[in-house]
Structure formats: structure tokens, C-alpha cells
Amino acid sequence: MSKTTDVLTRFRQETALSRNRLIGLRFEIEGSIVPQKRSLKWAAIPAAASLILFLTGCSEAGDPARGYLPNGPTAGGTEPVTNHTNDIVGLWTTSWIVLLVVGVISWGLLGYAAIAYRRRKNDEGLPVQLRYNMPIETLFTVVPLILVVGFFAYTAKSMASIEQPIAGSHKIAVIAKQWSWDFGYEAEGVYDSGVQLADSAFKNASSNSMHVDGEPVLYLVQNQPVELDMRSRDVIHSFWVVDFLYKKDVFPGGTAETNHIYFTPQRLGTYEGKCAELCGEYHSAMLFQVKVVTQSEYDAHIAELRAKGFVGDILNTTNDRNASGDNNPAASQTNG
User: Has residue 115 been placed in a domain?
Assistant: First the structure.
């Protein structure tokens, strides 16, 4: 019995000692948390101010109603840049509005829960734990499902409209190559073959513009439907006119691999374009321009190409002015 009594006594002593240690540790932790919370509260103020300054400086100019998307040269008029840009802007801005509403509700609920159910000074132990809550879990399942289905339907509708061929379109062949662009005006039987830009061209370029002298230029007639038939001579490229708010990959191969873009340019002006697919060492040199002009200006450009002897099919590689050697800048300058 004495041995049993000694064991029980020793167990009680160790239990009491452990409890005292835990109580001391609790007071030590709580004592360290209070100043830490205060310091975090004061540190949050400059952090929030810095974030606001950073976000307000993200764009030098832009229309919030368009989601700060580019809107092309305003000197050409107030019409949409193409017949698709309004739909694309609508998809973009609507998506952001919905996501911001969901975000505000979620952040509000998180903030409310953090404040309303925070640990009070005299609280001990853990709050009541629930294994599940059917209404909340149903809400967290149904709402995201509705959002995903809605976004998918809206996107599918916009894409179907953008990818729909337009009757009576003016067909133009767009050929991507390392590292420039060729444009073939099929109905007129003429073409314009680009030459890779030399390094010296970029040294004289403005840092505020994407334009570099010597870029190939694609001419389009205002309000005339266009079909661009695009293929590549070598690797995968991507045709992107920034203000058109649309881009599409350009693949090497034949007719089966040819990609198409259908649209109607509606605003006069000059638009900057570039390759949006990393395609090799001089990818950044794959710049071009699109000029939306009147019918008379377009006819004058076609006559100029014909006078230069650029007559024939651009799909024929013999008409490619950039097809020499390994397409290095020195060779390009020689061919130009």
C-alpha cells in the first residue's frame, strides 16, 4: 500500500507542476500577444497606404468603364475599333464587377466573423466545434457553380460571335516568320513582305511607343469586313493587334493548320501589333502596324505595291524578302 500511495502522491505532484507550467506559459504567451497585436495594427496603416498608392499608379490613363483596356487612337473617331471590341469589353468589365461583388461579400463575412467571434479576455478553452453546417456548405457549392456556368455561357456566346465568318469578307493572307510578317492581298494579287528589323532601328525608337521605323504595315479599309488567313513559315507565332483586344496563334503547316480571324475595322487610325508567342532570339523584333484607311488610301497603297513589283502569291517562298541565311540582322539589312 505504501508503494501505491507514493506513486499516487508523486503523480499528483507532477500533474500540479505541469498545470502550473501551462498556466505560466499561457500568461507569458498572452502577455506577448498584446503588444504584438498593437504593433501589427499600427504597421497595417502604412501598408494599406502603400497598397493604395501602388494600385492608383498602375495605369497612366484609361477609362474605368472599359476596365482600363486600350481604346485605340481617338483622332480616328469615337466608333468601336472593330465590330467585336464592345463585346470583349463587356465580357471583361462584367466579369470584374461580379468578382468584385463576390470579393466584397467574402471579405465582409471574414471580417465580421473575425470581430464577432474573437476570443474575449475571460474566455477559456475552445469554442463549440461544429463538424458540418449543411446550409453554409450548400451555399459554398451552389454559388461557385452558378458563377462558373455563367462565365462559361457568357464567354462561349462572345467567342461564337467573334469566330463567325462574315459574308463578303476581303481575304488577306498573313504569314508569320522569324522574325517579321508578310501580308498578301489576294483579290488584288499583290503582297508586302517584311524584313527583320535591325538592332539600330530600336536604338532610335521612342520608349513611349511600340512603333519602330521599318515595320511591315497591313492596310485595311474602314467598315469593310476582313478575313485574315494566317499561317507560319517556321515556328508557332501569335498575331496580336493590341487595340483590337484579340489575338490568335499562327501555326506552321498547310491549309489544315491555317487559322482565321474575322472582323470589321470601324475606326480610322494606325494600330500597333506584335507577335505574342515566344518564337526565338529576335521575338521582340516581330512588330507590325495595321492602318485602317479610306478606300482611296487603300487603292493608292495597292498601286504602290504593284509599282514596286510586289505582284504574286505571298505563300510562294520566293516572294519572301527575309528568306536568306539564318535571318540574322546583318542578312536582313542586306536583303532590304
Answer: no
Q: Which residue among 58, 77, 95 closes a domain?
A: 58
How confident is the model over 327-336, as a mean pLDDT?
Answer: 38
C-alpha cell at 220: 485595311
Dihedral of the CA atoms 57, 63, 65, 71 (nearest 10)? -130
Whether 301 maps to a domain, the answer reads: yes
Tens digit of each residue's pLDDT (9 = 90 or more) over 45-100: 666 666 665 555 554 556 787 888 888 777 667 889 999 999 999 999 999 999 99
pLDDT of residue 330: 36
What average pLDDT does the chain have?
80
Q: Taking Cα atoms as reference points, which of 172, 163, 143 lies closest to residue 305?
A: 172
> Over 60: is that where the pLDDT of 29 sits?
no
* Total-model pTM: 0.72
* Same structural domain, 182 and 302: yes
Residue 73 CB burial class (10 angstroms; 0-12, 13-18, ≥19): middle
Q: Using the predicted structure, report yes or no on whether residue 228 has a pLDDT greater than 90.
A: yes
Number of independent structural domains in the chain: 2
Backbone angles phi, psi at 217, to 5 degrees: -125, 130
Report if residue 159 sits inside a domain. Answer: no
Alpha carbon distance 74, 60 (integer Å): 16
Kind plus residue range of the DSSP H or E element containing 81: none
- Strands, sheet with 259-263, edge to edge from the N-terminal-most edge strand: 190-193, 180-185, 170-177, 226-232, 259-263
Structural domain that includes position 29: 1-58
DSSP category for residue 321: T
Q: Examine the domain organization and report whether 48 and 184 are in the same domain.
A: no
